[in-house]
Amino acid sequence: MSKTALIALIFVYLGILFLIAFFAEKNKGSKLVSHPVVYALSLAVYCSAWTYYGSVGMAAKSGVEFLTIYLGPIIAAPLWIVLLKKIIQLSKVYKVSSIADFISLRYGNSRSLGALVTLVCAASIIPYISLQLKAISETFEIVSTSSLGIEGSSVITDSTFYIALILAIFASFFGTLALDASKHRTGVMFSIAVESVLKLSFFLIVGVYVTYFVFDGTSDIYKQAKLGLDLNELSTIKGLSGGINWYFSVALSFLAIFLLPRQFQASVVEFTNRKQLKTSIWFFPLYLLLFNVFVIFIAWGGMLILGDQSKADYFTLLIPLYFEEYWLAILVFLGGLSAVISMVVVSTVALSTMLSNNLIIPYGFIKNLTQSKSFKNEKTIKNIRRLCVFSSIILAYLLYALFDPKVSLFSIGLISFLIIAQLAPSFFIGMFWNRGSALGSKVGIILGMLIVGFTYLLPFITENVLSQNSFAEQGLYGIDLLKPYALFGVDLLNPVNHALYWSLLLNTGAYLVLSVVKKGNYRERNYGEMFVNSEKVVELKENAYVWKGEAYVEDIQNILIRFLGEAKAKKALNVFRKRYQVNPEEKLADARFINFSERLLTGAVGSASAKILISNVAKEKPVSLVEVLKILEENKETISVNKSLEEQSQKLIKLTSDLKSANEELKLQDQLKDDFLDTVAHELKTPITSIKASSEVLTEDDDMPFELRQKFLNNIIQDTERLNALINDILDLEKMASGRDELNITSEALNTCIQDAIDGISSIAERKHIEVNFENKTQIEAEFDYSKMLQVFTNLLSNSLKFVSENEGRIEVLLEENSEEITIKIRDNGKGIPEGDFDLIFKKFYQSKNQTFKKPVGSGFGLAICKQIVQMHCGEIYADPGLETGAEFIVKLPKRKL
Amino acid sequence: MKKILLVDDEPNIIMALEYTLRKNDYEVFIARDGEEAIALAEKLLPDLVILDIMMPKVDGYEVLQHLREHNALKASTQTVIISAKQKESDVQKALNLGAKAYIKKPFSMKKLLNTVSELLNHKP
Questions:
Q1: CB contact, 8 Å: A148 with chain B?
Q2: I need a surface site. Which of A72, A391, A616, A818 has the fewest CB within 10 A?
């Protein structure tokens, strides 16, 4: 492909990314844009061109060592998420917009520390961006074969320069859209997520191509590699020193996943909700694993085909080109471009925020800003940021122009990791140790940087730029102990890990010792306390009265207006006053207001500048650590009060639901009562109808034969008796229910009582050919009311009689006892009890719809009367719900004396 | 002679009704539940059914439904309900199912006889 065509392609591709970013910015709330996977994918900004090209190169040269860079994040994913949660909580509360903000805030909002961290970040990022540009430029040269179009090596004609320029414009425009740096950059992050998908897909495509199309699968490559390459060298962890190196490399990448400014930007600043973490915990490691599946095969394949290690970084391009698969090479190129763009954009956005908020504004512009008008301020700040993005990319380009083309991607990437790792002690220890001080942090970082400079950068430059090996080989002034790669004789480690070991050792040592020896000022200690107890701080928010002094609302209001603009400042003030119900007439600002304003300003100008701005108008008095602890303690009390309130409200909710269900119960009772009255009315009317009809017949017909007359009269008597029995039943139940009935307890044989009941119903059972079985063997004596229990058994038996079918019906009665109680079971093979009716059947007025024939008198009370009687005996009665056919009623009577 | 099918599960009520209807020159048949009623009705094709509602197995409503769906019975047989069910909704339900009259229990024998003879004389 010609250079011009390739450049056109790059433009189209960037244009599409612009459109995607625009689309996402417009559709902020949409499901797609705010999906947690987008966040997880944006974390994959970790995989830059270094991953995309460099890991193949590394695999070709040093074997499986390339894995360490991905194993760190993968192994540490669970721990990473836990730590990240704390970092995010703190960052959201304090509107932290970068890692420099985070660290400087922890050490009492130290302006100089923020600036130092910013410089460290810049030192880490800029070479890293150069590395990306180097990758782009070299791959561009590889893919563009024709010499048509622009040619040459001056800046004006170098295509890399233009690519850098386009990137700079893209990043500076989208990354700095909002003034508040702690706000989300939805458009950029969404396009990053899209690019993450693209780069992975293209990489997998080329991996599949090499493994399955060029070769015959993984085992084929392995077999060929076994013959053609020194596999032992490439697939093992080379002994003890190799193992230690692995350990350090994994640790390095673990630190990088937290500390790289682009990772902090993607994972903390752009974080919006918890779901994102839940998704990332499995999605991100999976992504990294997928990215590494084919690396080793591409590397081996490349060496087998091309036989040359020197261009191993670009095997992914060279293999397709070797087989003249141009389209594939272009896809790979675009994937690499995606990796570059996402890394460059996020890194520069993060860096520009730090540069402007932690370096330029607090050290240079703060005076100008406090004097000029608000809308101008907003513009100035944005312009500062844009300029930072722009200049950092351009600076990276210049650095790139200096690089020796022989330097591999991997070694430059490691410089970046090494530098950023110097923030680790201040960052991690500071979150869990409240003693850590700004002085310790600053000295530690500087010392660490110096060691890195001496043990890695200096020899790196002398070797690669000046092409002199004497320094690296003989040490400073020829002193053996000062050999940069084997300081004090430690020569077990490779240069990177060696540098990491010494720099972190001294860095951490200085940090710890100085923090212990010299106590930090009150601000440092207060913030230390708050960072360590982050869970409490999250609850505190504006309630943290960690400020004492004198300030006027009006002064602070003016600052807010100047930096946020009139409308935004007024809106924020209204929110504040409403939330805390503060009197608008109040002239003196309280701690809540100071905190609130400082946080608002932090978003706009960073924490260091915000502190300066506020302290210009407020006379602050030192707050003692005791006071801070008291606040945290008080807050704990508030939380516990809140908790008890919550409990109370839970109780109320429960009470309400109890009342509701009681109401339901009453309604049901009412319904049952209505039904019962209907039934009673029906039952009463049936004998009355009969009596009335018979009487009418008798009065109308004088010449009726005597026998027939007698029969009608008998019917009338019978129905009258039936009426009487029914009324007695109703009264019985009522008497028992209201507790006016007393038991007549005697000591009798329970088995006799049951037998009597069976005898009582036997005539009906015989008529209907229903079998009733009871093994009346054992004599069981008990104390009970004989007639009442007889009534219970009779009722239960008649019930069973009602529900079994004629001729086939069978009723079993069982009587058992143990030391505690006597159990009577009455089981039948009838229709059974409808599901859901097991409790209802014992209620008054219940009538089943399953009856096979007309119930005898008084039905609707049978079981209710039984339950009353058994309960009066302190026993229990229930139906066994576990049966498949038929019904079983169980009566249990206690053995103790009543 | 007009054929009347008497359906009720209360023997004493049936006895009084049967006696009175016979005396008034109707041919009377008796069923003690819904199932029996349907079988008998299909066999006899009576001119009138006097039907109780609350009966075991198959209740009066179901019998009504069946009478309405049976071709021959639909044309020839009328139904009078005698029931202790008092609610207006029960009455309406029975009338909707094709009952010609609804007489609440306890009924007056005279009124029942009047309704029966009226229905049978006006029959087309």
A1: no
A2: A818
